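Before a computer can learn anything about folding, someone has to put a protein's shape into writing. The outcome of that step, for a single protein, is printed below:
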Amino acid sequence: MSRVLRTGGGGTARTNPISYAVSGPSASGTADLVLVHGWCCDRTAMTTLRERLEKRHRVLTLDLRGHGQSQEFDEDGSVGAGARRVDADQPAPTGTVATSIAQFSSDVVAACEAAGLRSPVVIGHSLGGLIALDALARADSPLREVPGRPWQPAGAVLLDPAPIAREKGKEFWAGQVDPVSQDHTGDLRRDFARSLVLPTDRVNYDQIVEVMAATHPQVAAGGANAMATFDGAQALEQLALPALIIHAATAERGLEQLVPDRSLLTLGRTVGAGHFHHIEVPEQVVPMITRWLENTFGTNA
């Protein structure tokens, strides 16, 4: 069952509705997991993983602020601006635009606290991977343990994350902020989404492409800015909890050199799949996550 909570609007009177759902056994003795989708996607992009992981774990999925059923804008009549999912039974709400990874992180912590999760492993794809890393490494992150907020993640899994420390990657996203904000037809995002799929990929990604194209342009621009401005190098330098990074067709080099305690960072890579490898080759991704959980947190993880 989907639930909606409302988070603060960053000093304004507006609130940010966050739609989330919890599935899987609640008393399995295994680690709780949080699945965080990528840029301009929604939680349906994590369905393949959820269906496999919820057999042993309690799993929380959510739509980040402005995405899926947590949309921030009313439909303004233009294609690709605030288009609602067909199964949404509520009018598209209004909130604030997230422009930083920390703001997106606040959505995750709010959903986890509302669902009663206290020490989950955060698994994020693409943009969601940066959010998962922020959960572990930012000293001032809302996801870190602070007085009055006992919630803290146990670890993180980054699935083909957006650029973490590579400057050219950050520059690319900085250059996309303005064009994406004007992409009312969604064509720019359609082309970008299709460029992430390898010619050898076998899954039909039409639905994901159209979801990415339908996200409100201002929400998309906010996500682009978040990826451009996130200090991933500092996050790795502050890493104090275990993390697993699973790259796909390409891999960002030198990340392990940024981590003071290299035992905290595990690197992996899938074979024969593009950016959406968690959908394309779950038979590779899920065993890698499961083995890492067991090795890191014990056989009951």
Notes: The two ends are 25 Å apart (CA to CA). The first strand starts at residue 2 and ends at 8.
